[in-house]
Amino acid sequence: MATIETANLTDEELADYDFMLLRTLASRQHISLLAIRIWNDVLVELGKRGLAEALEGSLEDVTTARIRRSYPLPNLQ
Question: Which of 6, 19, 35, 75 stands the most exposed, by the fewest C-beta atoms within 10 Å?
Fold first, then answer.
């Protein structure tokens, strides 16, 4: 069951959320379970749009997946 409705969000909005959580992880800050659930929904939607794919694991579980993104990510630093 989806936590949020992602179908109406733009590619840019989805990618921005993805980047925000990647940057949070890179800085070793705490991420809430709700934020991770939303991130899973975002990645699944990006996958439906052909903008992300799981190389290992599943887009539905960002905590174990290895993900290839087909959109540019700014520097995480």
Answer: 75
φ/ψ of residue 42, rounded to 5: -60, -45
Determine the Cα–Cα distance for residues 67 and 59; give it in Å rounded to an integer: 7
In order of 18, 24, 29, 69, the CA distances from 2 in angstroms are 16, 22, 24, 21
Find the angle CA(25)-CA(76)-CA(3) to the nearest 5 degrees: 45
Identity at 11, one-letter amino acid code: D
pLDDT digits (tens, 9 = 90+) for 18-48: 999 988 888 888 889 999 999 999 999 999 9
